[in-house]
Amino acid sequence: LEGSVGKVTLITRPRRWGKTMNMDMLQRFLAIEVDEQGNSLPREQCLNHKLFAGGEVTLDFGDTKLLKPLKITNYPALMKRQGQYPVISLGFKDVTGESYREIEEAIKMQLTDLYREHSYLEQHIHATSGSVKQSYQEKLQRYLTGKFGEQDARKSLRFLSELLSKHFGQNVYILVDEYDTPI
Q1: pLDDT tens per residue, range 107-121
Q2: Which among 41, 113, 118, 143 counts the fewest CB atoms within 10 Å?
Q3: How far lies 155's CA from each of 59, 111, 135, in Å?
Q4: Count of CB atoms within 10 A of residue 115's CB?
């Protein structure tokens, strides 16, 4: 995976072939789970790890269930990668509208929600120093509050991936589902 900066894989299949489910599984396999401050959680606290390696998980209403390990646990080299990467997951399923303006606003809402999932990055920027700090803080605030324009929207995934890469010291996976719905 090192050296694969900018590599793109487009998966096209007919409707109802499980593309969304597979992307969700990939996101859960790769994603680093963090606390509210953006610190990586220990593996024994990570739900995603338990989904693959097995363990007790808490269900709704306080019930628990013991999950069995999946076959992927027979491949230690793969399991070393589980939960090790920042992942941006963005789905455009609900981005619809009667006009370009409505679609643009729906995309902005999706992006704002995405940034709020990573609001801990504010603390990371505050901890940095130098002239870049101020512009990063201002730009991040625009994304978190939804007060950004079309140019910022175009650059939003690049900026978020840059922040996540710096925060975690890892390449970032970007998963985009239903990319064609706004079109």
Answers
A1: 999 999 999 999 999
A2: 113
A3: 38, 11, 14
A4: 24
